[in-house]
Structure formats: structure tokens, C-alpha cells
Write a structure and sequence with these properties.
Length: 436
């Protein structure tokens, strides 16, 4: 049976491992690599900490990981510790499930101000990703501006608006919980360059804004199209727009009842970050109108005060040396998951950052079908034993799934009351926990 290397242990990675296992059963040989010593990618470091029910899908991935045919090879950075070419010598198929961890660049004048933060860093910070644990965003001002109207913008706006008690039962990391408890942010403005009919926010997530302890969402009813126009929308988007209509119907008198506001600013395209000495103080915005679904600038501009700017405008896959990359789309250049002979991609690395966690499941099954079409079920390579020899020669510190379980036990033991875990936020402490 072929030897399969899957690079990335997030949803796309583990659904692909599951698919390979279904295909080849007990004869499967599957190694799942991750640059971190901990598995599950976006489930651990991307999904909002107050969305524990979504994070629970990791139990399904654990079932796959605990079988004899699948190995976790954590703490190994493909492209640095081992090259794609080397992996291709060992494995019949190398499947990149590396997601899209980098922000789409904001590319605005002033966008390099210190308090302009991309969603990868912000989400990574409150989720304890080691790369962003030191971010320490300045929450001492009153106004935050979130750019983008997708679910990530919604996550960031909600997390900034919640009271500490609303994080009970979540696995938000201690440094973020403490900082958010001290936050002075009163208004979070969510900027959309298009209108209510073009939002990318899903209804369940949008509906949560109605039930926040200390924040009330605000939509200007003049921004909403006539209600009859909602009939053409697909059902999910129609539900989301219904939520916006409910927000617009909140009487002005109610708004004063909570100390925080989440303001939706539609038809508002950011043009520049205004600031001095490298610190943003406002966002300059151009009013737009929609033509054939596209935002067209009207020339009318205004500024919104901003003590913190969060850019939540989508993500890009990290290029890897030797792997063809589609720079415009921000993902690996591929045809139906095929990159080069023996080299494939799956999930966000294949199709870009769209869809739900579950969208990656059919992707994983599809890519294994491609592998079977191309190379059948026979192996011509030595597989994981080859990598193990190379790792030993290079003194690479490989973290196995049993080591991760030790890290996890330590995180569970360190959990504050009511929380599922307290994550380690630096790699040294993770590795130290594997030695206990
Ligand atoms: P997204 O859904 O693609 O939304 C990106 C937003 O940024 C859009 O509103 C887009 O506006 C806007 N945008 C892009 N470029 C811009 C620019 N230059 N200036 C101003 N606005 C700009 O991306 P996402 O929010 O990062 O989410 C990624 C994926 O993860 C999505 O599939 C999402 O549903 C999923 N996700 C799901 C959940 C959940 O289910 N709870 C949570 C988080 C993320 P235009 O439409 O005008 O381009």
C-alpha cells in the first residue's frame, strides 16, 4: 500500500488521513506532519475559544490519530527541517494540508502602524498560538475598527465585546482573558465595503450578537435594502440579513442599556489608516455604492476614530520552496488537488480560505481518490522509516501523538475552574511537558 505523508494536522489533514485509512484499512501507512508539537491546526488555534462545540470535532480526528496506521509527526517544519523533495523520496504521495495561515495583505497607506493587526495574529493571540502569544494588543483605547464582514471579523468583534464571565467554559488563554478584562474598548465598528446582501457572516454566528452581556449590535436601517429584495437570497444569507434587520429594529433607548456597541458600517471601503508616529488614530473610509455586486467608490470620504484596527479580510497559504504557488489566489497552483506528480494539496491550501470545517471532509476523500487514480495502491517507497532515519541524523525533536497526549494532560490539569484546558503558549513548555 502507498506511503502517504500529510503535511498539516488540521481538519483537512485529518479528514485526508481518515479517507486514506478507509481506502487501505489496516494496510495504510499515513504520517501526519505538523510544524507545532500540538495537532489540529485551526481547530485549536483558529476556531474561537467560545465556540467549544465546533472544537469538539477534534475528538473525531483523535480517533483517526490513535489507530496503528496513522502517526503524528509534530514539531517538524516542512520546508525547513525537511524539504518537500526529501519527503517525496520517502513517500508515494505527499499531500499539503497546510491551510492558509497568513493574512491577505491590507495594503493601505498607514497599514504598517503598530496598532493595525491582522486576524491571523489577533485570533492566534487569544487562542494561544505560540507565534502570536506575545502580541499584547493595546486595548486601552475606546474605539476598535474591524475591517471585513466575514465570520472571522465577527469572531474578533465578539471576543472584543464580551465580559469576562462570558468566557466561562471557553479555552481562551489566560493572557487574553486578563487583557480583555482590562479592556477599555467601548465601540467596535465592523466595516464592510459592500452592503447587507453581500456579507459573508453566517446566521448562527451573527445571531450571537443579540445575546451579549455588555454589548448591543447597531445597524442603521437606512443601509438595509427593501425587505422584499431578500427573497432572492439563498436561505442562509437571508437568515443573516434577518438578523441585521433585528439589530436595526433595536430602539435607540435600549442602546444605552449596555456599555459597549458593535456598529455595522456598510458601503464603507477603507482607503487609509490615519495616524502619527506609527500609531493609528482613525480609518479613512470612502462611501461606496453597489453595481452588479461590486463596490464602486463615490468619492465621499469620512474618518472613523480607531485606537485599534483589526484587518479580517481573508487568508493566504504560505508558499513552500519548490512548490508551484498561485500568488494571485494565495494558494498552491493545482488542478483538482494535483500540484506535481506525487504532490497534492487539500483544504484551504487547495481551494483557498472558504467554507466550514466540514467542507474539508469531502476534500480529503477527493484527494485520496486522485492519489489512487494516479499511483494505484502499490508502494514504491520506503515510507516513514526513511523519514525516521533522516530525523535521527538531523537530531530533529519529533513529537509523537503519545507525547501530545502528555501535553494535553498537562493542559487539562492546568485548566482554571470551568475551563476545558489552559493551553501552553510556547513551544519549549510544550516540549517540556512531553518529558514528564
Ligand atoms: P471571508 O468570509 O472571505 O470574509 C472576508 C471579508 O473581508 C469579506 O467581507 C470581504 O469583502 C472583506 N474584504 C476582503 N478584502 C477587503 C479589502 N481589501 N477591504 C475591505 N474588505 C475586504 O473570510 P474570513 O472571515 O477570513 O473567513 C474565512 C473562512 O473561515 C470562511 O469560510 C468563514 O466562513 C470561515 N469561518 C467560519 C467560522 C464559523 O463557522 N464560526 C468562523 C471563522 C471563520 P468582499 O466580500 O467585499 O470581498
Amino acid at each position: 500500500m502507498p506511503h502517504i505523508a500529510i503535511i498539516g494536522s488540521g481538519p483537512a489533514g485529518y479528514y485526508t488521513a481518515e479517507a486514506a485509512q478507509k481506502k487501505w484499512g489496516e494496510d495504510a501507512h499515513i504520517d501526519v506532519f505538523d510544524r507545532l508539537p500540538v495537532p489540529y491546526g485551526l481547530i485549536r488555534a483558529g476556531v474561537a475559544p467560545d465556540h467549544q462545540s465546533i472544537k469538539a470535532v477534534s475528538r473525531r480526528y483523535e480517533k483517526t490519530a490513535l489507530t496503528d496506521t496513522v502517526r503524528f509527526i509534530g514539531n517538524i517544519s516542512v520546508g525547513t527541517d525537511v524539504s518537500i523533495g526529501e519527503l517525496q523520496e520517502f513517500y508515494d504521495a505527499v499531500i499539503l494540508a497546510t491551510g492558509a495561515p497568513n493574512d491577505r495583505p491590507l495594503d493601505l497607506p498607514g497599514g504598517d502602524c503598530a496598532n493595525v493587526i491582522g486576524s491571523a495574529a489577533m485570533v492566534g493571540w487569544y487562542n494561544g498560538h505560540p507565534e502570536f502569544a506575545e502580541l499584547d494588543p493595546d486595548l486601552s483605547g475606546r474605539n476598535a475598527v474591524v475591517i471585513g464582514m466575514g465570520n472571522v471579523a465577527l469572531d474578533v468583534a465578539r471576543i472584543l465585546s464580551k465580559a469576562p464571565t462570558e468566557f466561562e467554559g471557553s479555552d481562551i488563554v489566560a493572557h487574553a482573558l486578563t487583557a480583555l478584562a482590562d479592556s477599555s474598548i467601548e465601540t467596535v465598528t465592523i466595516l464592510g465595503r459592500r452592503g447587507p446582501h453581500q456579507i459573508m457572516m453566517t446566521p448562527k454566528e451573527l445571531g450571537e450578537l443579540m445575546h451579549l452581556e455588555q454589548a448591543i449590535p447597531r445597524v442603521d436601517k437606512r443601509d438595509l435594502p427593501p425587505e422584499d429584495d431578500d427573497a432572492i437570497l439563498e436561505p442562509g444569507l437571508r437568515k443573516s440579513v434577518n438578523h441585521l434587520r433585528s439589530f436595526a429594529a433595536i430602539p435607540e433607548s435600549i442602546h444605552g442599556e449596555k456599555p459597549r456597541a458593535i456598529e455595522f458600517d456598510f458601503f464603507a471601503s477603507p482607503k487609509a489608516i490615519v495616524g502619527s508616529d506609527g500609531v493609528a488614530t482613525a480609518v479613512e473610509v470612502e462611501r461606496t455604492r453597489i453595481e452588479a455586486g461590486r463596490a464602486i467608490g463615490t468619492g465621499e470620504t469620512y474618518t472613523i476614530p480607531a485606537d485599534l484596527v483589526l484587518s479580517c479580510i481573508g487568508y493566504r497559504t504560505s508558499p513552500i520552496d519548490g512548490v508551484p504557488y498561485d500568488a494571485r489566489a494565495g494558494k498552491f497552483a493545482n488542478s483538482d488537488g494535483r500540484i506535481l506528480p506525487g504532490l497534492y494539496c487539500v483544504g484551504w491550501a487547495r481551494r483557498g480560505p472558504s467554507g466550514t470545517i466540514g467542507t474539508n471532509r469531502p476534500d480529503g476523500y477527493d484527494v485520496i481518490d486522485r492519489v489512487v487514480e494516479d499511483i494505484g495502491s502499490a508502494s514504491r517507497k520506503q515510507g516513514g522509516a526513511g523519514f525516521d532515519t533522516l530525523a535521527a541524523e538531523r537530531s530533529l525533536e519529533v513529537v509523537r501523538f503519545s507525547d501530545w497526549k502528555k501535553i494535553e494532560d498537562a493542559e487539562l490539569a492546568a485548566a482554571r475552574d470551568g475551563a476545558p484546558r489552559e493551553k501552553f503558549v510556547d513551544i519549549e513548555r510544550m516540549i517540556a511537558a512531553t518529558k514528564d
